[in-house]
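To: structure desk
From: M.T.
Subject: fold request, one chain
Message: Could you run this one when you get a chance? Sequence is below, nothing fancy, just the single chain.
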Amino acid sequence: MDLTRVNESDLKYWIEATQRFDSKQKKFEAYNLLFNEIENEFHHFLREHRNDINKISAKDIRDHLLNRNKPNEEVYLHDAIWDWYNTEVLNDGDKTLGTKKNYKKSLNHFSNFLKRAKLKNLRIEDFKRFHANKFMTYLKQSDNKTGKIALKGQSVNSVIKNIKPYFSKLQQDEAILSNPFHGIRATEKKIHKPRLSNEDFKRIVELDLSNDLKLDVYRDLFLFLCFTGLSYCDATNLRYEDVKNGKFQLYRKKSNVSTRQFFIRQSWKIILKYEGLTPESRILPKRSLDKLNLNLKLIAVKAGISYNLTSYSARRFFRQSIHQSGIREALVVKTLMGHTRSNDMDHHYFLVDDNILIKAKKKLQKHYKKLLK
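Reply: Done. Structure tokens follow.
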């Protein structure tokens, strides 16, 4: 809608009560026709949005009446969300490679849904909660024709979790009024995964791999995670310069939360085994996470363990070992595990210093020594 600036001298013809110009001159008649058009469109807009008018701002109404949203009308959601992935997600230094891969998998699901539902040319602002619910239903259903496998509740929520930030950004940028995925969540069926027992841990340690050096490396990596509770990404990124007087402190890649602890004797034994053999001053050899988890399955079979081992099994085992070592102070546990302490009032008053961490180290060391007798 083209607007013409009104000269200040013309304002003497303006009538506040009618919100129109009182003059028969052609330019004022043109102004009045424009005002009539805007007023009609305003009433039409109110009728069309009568059920959600409380969510609409004055700016939204203004932009609609002045057609300020028109330049974005041809921006399709399918293309825009991939642009967001390529420009923002891929270039986000705080996201790990694995996290970026998970985002891509989620976007592939979303892209396939838009294609199957014939919504590939849907505009960003036209994607509503109705569509979000349909997407969740799509994820939960299988399709024999395409070979699509139905996802379980936990996987569905993981996909939605990676799609939701894009719409949150649109909402913050005032491109949409609300996030259509807000409150959209699939029901999760709780699955109790087997935990690594002390007996099975001992079987892994005692497993003879002298004729299989490849698996021996993966076992060492797994045991190091069991002794420290670190994620695989954080452990393999540790370098010698990160270790001071037998202690390391790092910010977890996944959450950016600090974790501190002294290496126990069992951890040092693994570190010394690879001293001088790893590039980039890393304290451990680096392998891909996929290969680690694959080879852990082989180790489990050889050790007579009936359930799958993963890198996360090691972190859960370390948490279990903290408890069995007699370490009960919540802030000490959170420091060792790298859990956030922002909601814990004690962290304002209680300092987990090196003396406390050394005591924790001795308890853990004693526990593992007793366990591996």
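Reply (cont.): The radius of gyration is 30 Å. Let me know if you need anything else for the meeting.
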